[in-house]
Specification:
Blueprint (H helix, E strand, L loop, with lengths): L1 E6 L20 H8 L5 E6 L20 E4 L2 E4 L25 E5 L22 H7 L4 E7 L4 H11 L3 E10 L7 H12 L2 E3 L9
Parallel strand pairs: 1-2, 1-6, 2-5, 6-7, 7-8
Antiparallel strand pairs: 3-4
Helix pairs in contact: 3-4
């Protein structure tokens, strides 16, 4: 069984949002076309409380891009984003949502960040995603979304560890690049760990 996973295509990660990925909106038509090829589609959403510990605004004297320690884990600080119930937390209206079967919420615990759609950053709390995919008999996971060098990267690493045959669709993702070269570093790491990096035009060859 194949599944398409759409990671965090939310307004705050798109141009004009609080944590915008440059040209992030360009991947949406690609994802919409890809959805027509899959019988099972899942989307993840960052879903942070306003007091989330990853927000620089909750650390006096700190700014986005600074580092701190959150609940024993190294943590880069971000602008406020994807706050529960806010417009920025909504999936983009440009994304075809009618074919999405399941939405996975992550990042609700203010004491730990959750980049991956499978686990929080400390791997202590699991989302619904793995159990849902197991129940559906999914073996092969095709991953898209934002951002390539953060949430997509962490999601792919966990998918590989959990034993999924994992594909990153490279023209259906973009990186935020808080530091120059972050996306290239992430893509290289994913590939070295066993992810298959393919274009949207190649997807049907692997289904």
């Amino acid at each position: 069984m194949n599944a398409l996973l759409i990671v965090d295509v939310q307004n705050d990660f798109l141009p004009g949002g609080n944590l915008a990925v440059s040209q992030g909106n360009q991947i949406i038509p690609v994802i919409n076309d890809l959805q027509k090829k899959f019988n099972l589609i899942i989307a993840s959403r960052d879903w942070h409380p306003a007091n989330h510990g990853s927000f620089a605004s909750n650390h006096p004297g700190k700014k986005p891009g600074d580092n701190t320690v959150l609940n024993g884990l190294d943590q880069i600080l971000w602008p406020d984003h994807c706050i529960q119930g806010s417009p920025g937390a909504e999936l983009s209206s440009l994304l075809n949502q009618s074919l999405i079967h399941k939405i996975i919420f992550k990042g609700s615990n203010p004491e730990v960040d959750s980049y991956s759609a499978f686990f929080d950053n400390g791997h202590k709390i699991e989302t619904e995603l793995h159990q849902y995919l197991r129940k559906k008999g999914v073996k092969r996971l095709f991953i898209t979304g934002l951002a390539a060098d953060v949430c997509v990267w962490f999601t792919i690493n966990d998918a590989l560890k959990l034993g999924y045959e994992t594909f990153l669709i490279t023209d259906a993702t973009k990186g935020v690049n808080m530091n120059p070269g972050d996306t290239e570093k992430a893509l290289k790491d994913m590939e070295q760990k066993g992810a298959n990096l393919i274009s949207s035009e190649q997807v049907e060859d692997f289904m």
